[in-house]
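Input/output pair, single chain:
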Amino acid sequence: MKYVQRGLLFVACSVTVVCLSPTNTDARPVFDASGFGCDKVSVKEIDRFQTPGQTCISILKHKNGKRFIVKQKHQRKSGRWYIGVAREKLGAYIAELAHIRTNRVEIIPNQYSFPGKHDTKLPATLHEVVPGMKVTFLPKELKPLKVFIQQPEKPTVAIAEWGLTRRVIKDMALHPDLPKIVALDTFIANADRHRGNFFYDKKSDHFFAIDLESSFNKNLASYACNLIKLMIANKQEIISEQELAALQVYRNVLKKLIKQHSPEGLSRKIVEFAVKGGIREVMSRKDVALMMVEDKQSIIKNYASCEKLVLLLDKLMIKHS
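Output:
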């Protein structure tokens, strides 16, 4: 495994980098991305590589210099990627409505061709390249901003460290953008915000989140509820003014997201985006149908936990007022 730089992007990839060769696209309709500022005539593919997770990344360059990414996984047998594109799009849609800095995302449906989309039988996602550098690669002079804001839920991490933690609260207090990104991740149940999945741009002094594909499939907010309950019960709990201010922003963003969306509306949207990707062609597969049902259930559970979390945060604010 090694890290390589691809233009503005740093990625971890294996020594052998292979993506599928383009399928025959002569008879395929071309996806119209002109509304995204990325029409076929104005962009060309300048690089292509594959990540360890079997995701093919194609970097496109517009004639005006702007860069875009086409992201596609080759999982025809499972149909999992149809769900992935819907999760990615829904997460970006929620972030854009709430004015939280993430990359814009558009779905390129299956059966459509587009520069950088090398398997026209599967959907892909088109992304704007955000400015700055991945946090994991920040230089020494920016080391204080090499923050940890991931809310993990995985077997390799102790359960006590799942979801929102004191470490995340401490680090998200270091910059005004961070509690907003953490709130977004809690709301959409994204446990994958490692340092490779958000950027810092020194020029604008802003953080930008990317990669929302791992969202909507867990009750991540429930772990935050557990932490805040402990903080309320602990009479010896010390919260700095900076941390308290970050938690207030975190709470306010959660309130805003809850007001903007309902669990029913989110469930409809994820189906809408999955249909746009072409999921109807694989809905007969049991694994795909089951994932759609599980995602809807996770959305409902996580949303309810977010509502409880806001009430708990209110109590925490009163305790420390």
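The first strand starts at residue 2 and ends at 6. The chain has two domains: 2-132, 134-319.
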